[in-house]
Amino acid sequence: MTAELLRVLLLTTTVIVVVVAFGAAIKPLADSSLGSGSVVKYVALAMIPMLQFALPFSAGFAATLVLHRFAADNELVAMSTNGLRYRTILMPVVAVGFALLVGMFILLHTIVPRFWGKMQDMLAQDATGIFIAAVSRGEALEVGQISIYADTATIDPTPPDNGAEQRLLLQGVAALQKNGVGQPATEFTSEFATVDVHRGREGVIMKLAMTNGSGFNASEGTVVFVPSAQPQAVQLGRALEADAKSMTYFELQDVRNDLPNHIEVQPARQAVLLALTRAHIWQCIEQQLQTTGRIELVEEGGRRSYQIEGATLENDIIKAKAGGQVRIVELDRAKPIREAMCSQVVMPFHSEDLVAGRVDLIATAPIAKDLLRSQGLSSRWPARIYGLSAAPCSTTAIGKIDFVEFTSRIQALSEPSTHIPKAIQAAGASSLTNLFRMMNMVDVDAFSHLCQRAALAWSAPLIILLGASLAAWKRNSLPLTMYLIAFIPGILNIVMIAGGQQVIRADNIVWGVIISWSGNAILLVCSMYALRQLARN
After folding, report:
1. Domain limits of the chain?
2. Exposed, middle or buried, 497 (CB in 10 Å: 0-12/13-18/19+)?
């Protein structure tokens, strides 16, 4: 019986897995993200992940056929009349089911994730095909914070000797680069452009270069014309750390044990550090104004700086002391070149600076004069000075704060003695809440995959047991009829496992686990009922 069961199982699995693997290639072929020459390789890779769905049903089909033939030939009756109990007769089925259980656990937790990753890498590596397909459909290529549009795209037959594997030639190009919060930050347009495709360990990198283009900065409201423009390079390769589907069991457990350092949590963690950085900068500036009466703010690069004197800090406003005015001195390489007098200066944090806590300066009705001329002639003062850092305020220690200190540090911002502006306090509290939410989301997502894999592994021995018990019980019925009866709860089980995983991801873990395992419970109850009827009859 065991040899016959394994033979039918092997043949059935081969047929089902090939059909399902070809089905997995339909979508990439339909949207032109997979070239026709890559179909065979893609299907070959897809066969291994598809085993997780093919094995349970092929095992149930094999058990149904083999046990139905044994029952129809009265071999089961002969065995039972010779004193063999049904549990002994069905022991080969149980043994094959146990082997499938072990095999499915190994397959789902170690082998299948690797092949999911190889399939994703294969799609990502066909970068030029993805781009040309998007252009032909009139759509933008959305990768990270970059959206690239083009009227036409062709492959350069002679790519340059700069390490690029391929070069695309584009016409009518527009690239939209977003900031960290998803808002449009910079827009580039050009009549002609090139895209160089580089491949490396980190994945596929696309570098866009425009000629005779124009750029629009949304934050500054400025338009510039440049002979060449190079927006931020975009990466098409996957990040293994962020793809739970492509992680093995041990990798998922490592993620759950080190949630603060997971790649998907880093933006939320950086937001907490940014709130702490801005609070530190604000306190430092306030202290400098109180103790020394001045503060020096430096542009990026350190060439120019601005000294602010005779003021106090309230929220984000630098106000003049009683009866005086705020004096701002602009220095170029430590040499005073211009000064301005005003009643107050608004000092908001620079919106696009997500690391260093830089500030902008907006002087209210400044009266400026040129210090390079002895006459002190009047001069124009910028409406807004962008991205300044406080010279005496170091923020290097902020980035070294351990995760366990985040809660106490954020709570300390709300203490009355700190005088931290409400906006910074609110940003710190919300960023900390978002950090824990992201950590919980990553943890729940990893758990949902572990639960889904475990439930799917148990479905194989339960379906094979149900098929065997139904075939032995209803030996006078057609074997395909018995398999159909076993097939329906098997399909229901797959649906409930997938549904339970989605419920777990929605952070309803208890109900998600119940739903995920209820399909297996139905298979077990049906098997026990069929075995009981077999024993009674």
Report:
1. 2-126+441-536, 146-231, 270-420
2. buried
